[in-house]
Amino acid sequence: MLADRIGLINAPADAVGKLADRLDQIAERCGPAIPTYTNPGKTLAADLADALPLIWTEGPIAGAVGRHFATELAGLAGRPGLAAELPEALTTHRPLLAGALAAGADPDDFFRDRVEQPAALHARIILLREAEAGPLSATRAAQQLADERDTPLSELHPGAGSDLERAAELLAIADFGAVYLALAGTE
Length: 187
Description:
Blueprint: H1 2-5, H2 15-29, H3 40-47, E1 51-58, H4 60-77, E2 82-85, H5 88-92, E3 122-129, H6 139-148, E4 153-156, H7 163-185
Parallel strand pairs: 1-2, 1-3, 3-4
Helix pairs in contact: 2-7, 3-7, 4-7
């Protein structure tokens, strides 16, 4: 309701009930008993296990979620994450895909002590979209850059629904991912 009042998204009164139903569905899909391969929160955490997340967003809702996700990664999981909006991310993060953090940089050292020395962090792109990619979307360019630089890319986009429902879905999955990543880091 607050987001409606400040003009961020349109949230009529009946939208709250739909939102509650959507969040219940997401909680069921992301629950701890759900296996990783069908659980978007656990899948996201697994994707980020040994990665430096480059959170690329498209759209104002996805941009807000991306900034929130970077904050949650730092606050909950103690992991850095860099958020940037497309198309600017293609130029601002491009050096990270070619330097020491690139996927092919510093290949796994055969003599590395796997118990004492953790694997090096490599960049992984997390692409957050709030809607399907349109003709002016930078999503295709992002996917092409990731392919060219051999950088893994994970995509999160919500199902159909109101702006409020799509925002809540992106936020919930990002939060579940950050929590699962934090839990995986505690041994």
